[in-house]
Fold each of these.
Amino acid sequence: MTSRFSIDPFLIKLLIAIVLASLLPAHGVGATIFSWAASLAIALLFFLHGARLSRGAIIAGAGHWRLHASIFSITFLVFPILGLLIGPVFGGYLTPDLYTGVLFLCCLPATVQSAIAFTAIARGNVPAAICSASASSLLGVFLTPVLTGLVLAGTNTASASLSTDTLGKIMLQLLLPFVLGHLARPLIGTWVVKRNRLLKHVDQGSILLVVYSAFSAAVIGGLWSSTPPSALLALLAVSLVLLGLVMGATQLLGRFMHFGLEDRIALLFCGAKKSLSSGIPIANILFAGHAVGAIVLPLMIFHQIQLIVCAIIAGMYARRTLVAEPSPSRV
């Protein structure tokens, strides 16, 4: 029981990176070195994501287009709309950079690993979850910058840079390594799968580098002096409300579309989650010159909340499945 409420170890590492950046921020030549190291690490991260992507899994789940369309509508349509609607209610309690981060969070693709893992725990439609989460991650490279520019238009928040140079950086740093990794899958796919535990540290290490670099710049720019505790509490409330509304929307949509239980589970865990591993690199490019540390802070808080809530719900679904299907549980 206690494991369901435990803190994600990766969150502890993120907190340590933030503390280090707050106490010992990188500046000058050190900041340049960390920035280049973070860019290379992120390219490696997306290369490995591409190498892990199984074409067989994509083919197995690609046929359920109604479910995928429902998931994408939650991820890239319902989420941004809710982010805009939350603004009049909570926007006054957040700093402009934090609210920018909330809107950016709403435009991100779904997670891959955790969405699939929770769908599997809850005994949902795993092949469809693999296909949808992987496609969402890839589509996010294109859709997230466009959606972010649209939702930030007309607000008083920091604007995302959508210049040709920015799109070129996204293609070069994120999409190209992903495609190269997937093309290299016949050569290195087995090696990558066998070393999944080791490569998990590569994933986390790249994110930690970006977080430290981004928060160092934000701290030097006065992040903590301009972010009152009340704004952080409001951000926590926003995250809880946003996650609750989206989860409710997935259930309503699933019933409206007459999906079975397994499909509704996939819709829930693929539609209601946002990707930290994709979000931080994209933010680092889109908001270059802005307080990236403050902008990704909502994503980091939402990430931990979604893990805790989804773990509880996945356990509930798993127990419900065990009661409904006692025979397979003994196999």
Amino acid sequence: MLKPEHLLTLREVVQRGSFAAAANRLGYTASAVSQQMAALERETGVRLFHRSARKVLATSAAEVMARHAAIVLADIDRLVAAVEQEHRNTIREIRLGVFPSFGMHVLPGVLQQTGTAIRLSVAEPSQLIPALGTGGELDAAVVYQVGNSGLAWPSVLHRHWIAEDPFRLVVPASWPTLAPYQPEQLMDLPWIMHQPGSSDALFFDGVFASWSLHPRAAGYSDDFGTTLAMVGAGMGAALVPLLALRGHKDDVSVIEVPWLNISRSIFALVHPDRETAALRSLLDTLVLANPEAAA
């Protein structure tokens, strides 16, 4: 029975004109190439090469076989690729990255409902995106973006919308009610702010400036769980997305004000080579997990 590796070696010998050149291309020794070609001649019963002390010449039979070998090898490559694709679609676990509040408040319920095998990584969007490249360890990453800046990703990645996550005004429950909370009422309040220089901090600096507010920072935090703890301790007010408010404690008051029209976009980034039917089904399930459903 003909061996594909012998056909591959034959093609290289005919194309490159010598056993030595084919051996160099394939990583074999010239002796190993000679032995493979001798075995192929025995298997086919056809003389493929004229050998002399100085050189090896391919016969017309070798040239014909090499042309057909190229077709056979291409068919084998397509067969292997099709099997690997089917394997990715049906067997391999989905390697999913999510940002912390999504992993804490949304994903557990989804995992209980789906039978898909998932390997999970939890990190900030800027840490997840580099793992989506060709050969990276993630198939998809659920990330967020506040405004239109601060987050970049390769153009080859596909973007799947999941939700808009609106921000709410959060104040200590011990503070007196200031309803209806007009912007001017917030001018002298202490605030828990994002770390200076971060993309979120720059975005909210612009938001406060649009309200003609210059907030007095009582503390800094980029972790919403810590921010809520600081607010609950009476340190100041904060703007927190609805998703991060799920299951919040009674020591904070969540206030919806009509003029606070700010949200962060939540979406999944997927490398097209990893976009299987199982992954698309999982992302469709995540879209149903509306941030407002259980806030």
Amino acid sequence: MNTFFSIHELKNYAYIIIGSIFLALAVVGFFAPSELITGGTAGLALLIHYITSLTIGTIIVLINFPLILLGIKFLGKMFAVRTIITILLISIFIDFLTQVVHLKPFIVDNALGAIFGGIFVGIGLAFIIKGESTAGGSTILAKIISSKTEMKPGQVILIIDFMIIFSSLFILEDTGKVLWSIISIYITAKVIDVMLTGNLNKKVVYLVTQKTDLFKELIRNELGPQGTIIRGDGLFDNEDKKMILIVVKVDKLQKLRELVKKNDPDGFLIITEATEMLGRGH
């Protein structure tokens, strides 16, 4: 079957369509009515829309067209095709909702518009990312710049979003709208993280102890059977070190602390976030 119409690609297009609808609803229903902005191409398009008579969808296409031509060799054939489709869908849906449906604002309020607009954008972008695509704009520039420099794509996107927000200070008279727009971008980032990595309730714990045999038994009985013993060398010659690596639910952390305090006062815990888990049902 042609790659364009394979089951995998059709699934990607379904994600892209859903994501594009959420983005369009965010722009038309929350951001535009309250004159708020968001990050990336949509944010820049909103700024230009506020000072011109061009439709938001038209501006998105105009901004992204040269960027796609510039970055197409960095995207790969199918990725470029999906990006172009995504940009066109977002533009069409936005203009359709405003020019044809005349969708009424969901809310005209800075705070609620920023919060729920940020949520909708986050959901939309998460679906688009699941569809192995991008909404264009800053993502394309980030790929190009990061491939030519030591900057990470996330850093480039953050800089671009900051420039858009800074520019809004000269266009939006209400500084409060700018501050709420910043909060909206933060909400968007958190929603994307939750949708792509899950809302994990677990921590990664490193237990440094000389009593690994004892704690192997205690952990199996009290916390569960999964864990790994890491062996290594200390800073001194012939100094063997052992460390137990386990993933612990947040509600069981206190139990683990009590076990260590009771059975090995010289042992200590290093606790970090589990940002993503794959395998074993995750």
Amino acid sequence: MARPRLLPDNFTLALIATVAIATLLPCEGKVAVAFSWITNAGIALLFFLHGAKLSRQAIVAGATHWRLHLLVFACTFILFPILGLLLKPVLSPLVTPELYLGMLYLCALPATVQSSIAFTSLARGNIPAAVCSASASSLLGVFLTPLLVQLLVGAHGDTGMSTLDAIGKITLQLLVPFVLGQMLRRWVGAWVERRKPVLRYVDQGSILLVVYTAFSAAVIQGLWHEIPLPALAGLVVACCVLLALALLATSQLGRRLGFSREDCITIVFCGSKKSLATGVPMAQVLFAGGTIGVILLPLMLFHQIQLMVCAALAQRYARRPEEQSTGLIES
């Protein structure tokens, strides 16, 4: 039986189910502590596997394209935060103050890795550059995201942790396992490559664990009583506006700076996306337990919207004749 076109993908359905379970059966007390330990172990395993999977040859091949990487990093860590601040008069009436803080947190995050590369490949872009750019963005985010959160979110509310403490904890939780995976790639890399579904399940499973524990804490503190339905609808609109501006900006910047068609595709897919896999564990470190659920709502919605929009966009690019350029505004 064919899958209905309007039915979300399995991971989206799993996220919705996880939020529903956390709403009906939130974990607390010793059970919450146990889930927290399991979640931390799952996240460490996830980034270890990413480190073991990433080819050093791909890193070297993509690293030489420094102009492209600078533009992607500027879009990820400069353009997005500026948009988040400039759009405050538009976003604030649509969402609650807490959800707006979540939008600012979203703007401070690094780019995705797997989906950026996958969409670049589907759209016939510069794949080695995408591998390098997306991976480097994730690693830079370990240091830049806490600083940006302090500048953006800290100006509107207390994040609950100093920047240096946050960088230290995120480094220990994300970067150290990644580096260890790179160091052991010689022995475990081939095994990881043969078992890519394992990485996908660890990736999705760790995210679901964090979402469950985060929303459990938020539900216990009255999450759904604090967020009215109009604010949730406004959040969808806010995420769509932010993504549309990011896609338009990355497309136009790539064209006007003289990048090739393949490079422009890479800039669009690496510079307009935000990482759920990195953002969820970082939120655990950067924010107090009761606020994580509200902070993560914009990221979860933006993640699903960007996947659906970028999937359609990648298919459109893939159908275009080779001689045409890559501007989003062209027919």
